[in-house]
Write a structure and sequence with these properties.
- By secondary structure, the protein is an alpha/beta fold.
- The chain has eleven helices and eight strands.
- Helix content is 46%, strand content 13%.
- Helix 5 (123-128) links the parallel strand 5 and strand 6 (136-140).
- Helix 7 (189-205) crosses helix 9 and helix 7 (189-205) crosses helix 10.
- It is globular and about 55 Å long.
- It starts with a strand and ends in a 17-residue tail after the last helix.
Length: 284
């Protein structure tokens, strides 16, 4: 069983993963180049772990002092050198990810596997910048991490069966099933869901309907838990736009052309839940 996980990136997904690890008694080293991001993550992790049992009945109660014994916060990537498994969660920027994986490849022992938490970027490409392509696997976590019972896992061209089984076993420790798919940009979830979110934004832009009406149709008529615009706000509209750009560049298909309204909202700082305003207004 894995006991110490390196978590790269203290944004929404890295913080959410750290919460899930703590709730399952697994240690974590949380790395981010920003001290402010780490301080924000510390506060959010304590709050999320504290309130988790109110949201999910099976979540354990963990004392604040015990939370901080299970996680180390650092700006030094080298501190993950003795972790059992690495999961990278930085923004969808291929150049940034390439730099991180080259450094991880140098820092970590040769038998350690790397999980790429990405919604669109090629796992095969990431494997190609390391000397351990067989040990690179996609782990597409979704928010909020501790409430999700399944994870989209992506097999790169060289990903080994050993790496896939290790990832299945790790996710099982978190009470999650792995749904293993093959590597093409966007995989299954984002290749389909981003079409929904993008077209929903076009519907609002074209004044066919208001955001609530769009989402209500998906929730009340199709039985979805969340509508596409609520989902976009939760993910972050900046992330959605970046992912659409990756999909467009990868496939050169006009169906992934980003809605101008999305770009305008991102330029205005309306990023969704994390900024307090997107298609909806949120209390921060």
């Amino acid at each position: 069983m894995l006991q110490n996980i390196g978590v790269i990136g203290a944004g929404t997904m890295g913080t959410g993963l750290a919460v899930d690890l703590i709730l399952h008694g697994i240690g974590a080293v949380l790395v981010d180049q920003s001290v402010d991001a780490l301080e924000k993550a510390r506060s959010e992790i304590i709050s999320s772990v504290r309130f988790a049992p109110l949201i999910k009945r099976t979540a354990p109660r963990v004392a604040d002092e015990d939370i901080l014994t299970k996680i180390r916060f650092t700006t030094s990537l080298s501190e993950v050198h003795n972790c059992d498994f690495i999961i990278e969660n930085v923004t969808e920027d291929i150049k940034l990810k390439e730099e991180i994986y080259r450094n991880l490849d140098r820092i970590c022992p040769p038998d350690i596997c790397f999980g790429v938490n990405t919604s669109c970027i090629s796992i095969t490409h990431i494997g190609g910048v390391t000397a351990r392509a067989s040990q690179i696997i996609g782990i597409h976590l979704m928010n909020p991490v501790f409430l999700k019972s399944s994870v989209e896992v992506i097999r790169g061209y060289h990903t080994s069966e050993h790496t896939i089984q290790l990832t299945r076993d790790f996710l099982s420790q978190l009470g999650k099933d792995a749904i293993v798919v093959n590597d093409y940009p966007g995989f299954v979830s984002n290749r389909i869901s981003h079409l929904f979110m993008n077209e929903a934004a076009f519907v609002v832009q074209d004044q066919v309907a208001q955001p609530k009406e769009v989402d209500d149709i998906f929730k009340k008529c199709y039985g979805h838990t969340m509508g596409p615009l609520e989902t976009a706000d939760l993910i972050g509209l900046d992330t959605v736009v970046h992912s659409l750009d990756v999909l467009y560049q990868s496939y050169q298909d006009s169906k992934f052309r980003c809605c101008p309204l999305l770009r305008k909202m991102v330029a205005a700082g309306l990023w969704g839940k994390k900024s307090g305003q997107g298609f909806y207004t949120y209390n921060r």
